Structure formats: structure tokens, C-alpha cells
Amino acid sequence: MNSTATPIQAQFSQALAARGWNLDRVRVDVASKDYETAAGGRTAFVYCRQNRDGDHVLTGDYWSEGRNVLSTCWALFRPGADEATIASEIERFAAEAEKTIAGTYAMRIKALLADEGGSAPEEETTSAPRY
After folding, report:
1. Strands (E) located in 1-131
2. Confidence grade of residue 116 (pLDDT, cut at 50, 70, 90)
3. End-to-end distance of the chain based on CA atoms, in angstroms?
4. What radius of gyration do the chain's Cα atoms show?
5. Phi, then psi, of 122 in degrees rounded to 5
6. Is the overall model pTM greater than 0.85, yes or no?
7. CA dist., res. 16 & res. 22, Å (int)
8. What whole-number distance in Å separates Cα of residue 85 and Cα of residue 116?
9. What is the pLDDT of residues 50-81, one digit of tens each?
10. Cβ neighbour number for residue 24 with a 10 Å cutoff
11. Can you tell me whether residue 63 is helix, strand or coil?
């Protein structure tokens, strides 16, 4: 990770990596995760940006159904926020983002198709002789 990461960005990166997100090789404030959907591959991006006031804001982008479904997933940390609060809010944000993505139409269809494929009826066997 780049040494220019703020402590909150470092915490963000560690938490998201532990949840299977990929850290950007250049930017310390970006993580991504690939999803295979019924409509093909999609990539989600989450950001931990610091504004002029020193606040850190977590946001995300995942386009599905013609909109950014992560537009309502966010978290805000003011300067001086304690580590435990930051950790729990990062976890809450990541869980909310993943749940929102799982609830998209293309992901629900993929899950439905996987369920149908996994529970195909077995071929019936009979004791009648075959000729």
C-alpha cells in the first residue's frame, strides 16, 4: 500500500481486502470486486475519499438496472473518530454494499438459475423390464 494513505484509508483497505475486495495498485482509496451476473461480468468499486475538512467519506459504484445501486450506501468519518467506530462503520458499509449488489435483478436471476440447475430432478428408475 502507498505510504500516503491516511490511517482511515489504511483501515479501509485492510477491512475490504479481508472481505475479498481487490485493492487498487495505484490509489490507496479504491477497492474493487468482480461479480458474475446473469447479464455478464460486472465490477463494483468502493472509495474512501478525504475531503477538505478532513472528513473521510465511503461511497461506491455498481451499475445495474440503469443506475448506480450503491448510490445510497455511504459512511462518513469526522476527524478524531475512534478506531472501533471506524472499524464497525467500514464493516457495515461493506456488508450493505454487498447485500445491495446481491439484491440486484441480474444477481437474483443468476441465483435463481443456479438453484434450478443444482436441483434438477433425478431420472426415475422403474423395476419394469426393458425390451
Report:
1. 22-23, 30-37, 40-50, 56-61, 63-64, 67-68, 75-77
2. confident
3. 70
4. 21
5. -75, 155
6. no
7. 8
8. 42
9. 999 999 999 999 999 999 999 999 999 999 99
10. 16
11. strand
> Which cell is 125 given?
428408475
Domains delineated in the chain:
7-104 (3.30.310)
pLDDT at 23: 97
Q: What are the φ/ψ torsions at residue 64 (nearest 5 degrees)? A: -155, 145
The span from the CA of 64 to the CA of 68, in Å, is 6
pLDDT at 13 exceeding the cut of 90: yes
Close Cβ partners of 111 (under 8 Å, ≥ 6 residues apart): 102
Residue 82 gets which letter from DSSP?
-
Count the neighbouring beta carbons within 10 Å of the beta carbon of residue 75: 19
How far does CA 40 lie from the centroid of its chain? 16
Which residues, at least 6 apart from 56, have a Cβ–Cβ distance to it below 8 Å? 6, 8, 9, 12, 48, 49, 50, 76, 77
For residue 101, give every residue at least 6 positions away whose Cβ sits within 8 Å of its Cβ, in sequence order, or none.
35, 44, 62, 64, 69, 70, 107
How large is the average pLDDT for residues 78-98? 95
